[in-house]
Structure formats: C-alpha cells, structure tokens
User: What shape does this take?
Amino acid sequence: MAAPYADCDIGPETAAHMAVACDRVRRETGLPIGVNMLANAALHALAVASASRARFVRVNQWANAYVANERLIDGAAGPAMRYRRELGAQDVRVFTDAHVKHGAHAIVVSSTPRPPRSAMRSPRRRPFASGAISRLISTA
Assistant: This one.
C-alpha cells in the first residue's frame, strides 16, 4: 500500500472534531455548510452533519464498489440511508459523485465503459441520492 493511505476506518475522534469545526464555521459565517469525509466515510459524514446542523453531505462512491488506493470500497447507499433515518436526519441531503476519479469502477476492464454523462443520467446508480456531482476524469 502506498503512503499516505491507511487501510483503516476513520476513528470517532475524527468525526467529533469535524462536528465541532463544522458547527463553529456554520455559526460564525451563517452560511449553509456540507460535509465530505475521505475514504467514503458516509456514516461519519452523516453523523457530523446531524451534530453540526450541516445541510448536506457529499459521498464519493454511492452505489457501486471500486478499487482505490485505500482498499476495495463498497457503495454506501444502503447503510447510509438506514443510518440517516436512525439519526432522524432526513433533512440532510446527500450528493454523490457520478464517477470516482481516484479509483477503478470495475475490477476487470469493461469492453463498454460508461461515459460520465451516461452515469449522471442513471438514477439506479445513485438510489435515494439528492443529486450527483460530475467531475473531470483527471486533474492536471
């Protein structure tokens, strides 16, 4: 595994610190804020958003698995929607990426790769998400 990536879960201390920071930013600025946590930590992001009264979370990989530098990462849709309901945070919107730029969507090479525009139009790829985020395939 290449540094700086760690093959471990985000700890509760990270979510606790993020919640405090997000709450302070929201209070000081009066602006709506959202939460994005690395390593596809959708549950942590929802907990932070609920505690800090953020309006939305961004989840990198929502419905499919992909291979990333950290590990094989599963989509978070099912567990995240159940956790959001448990938190009573149905007002927290979920925005998801249509393509993951730093990982592979398939373990094997597909003979018919889907272009980003096609993935954006496919709601079954993003069940229950509030919206989709389209990014460049690569950054220079």
About this structure: Residues 12-29 form the longest helix (18 residues). The chain is about 30% helix and 15% strand.
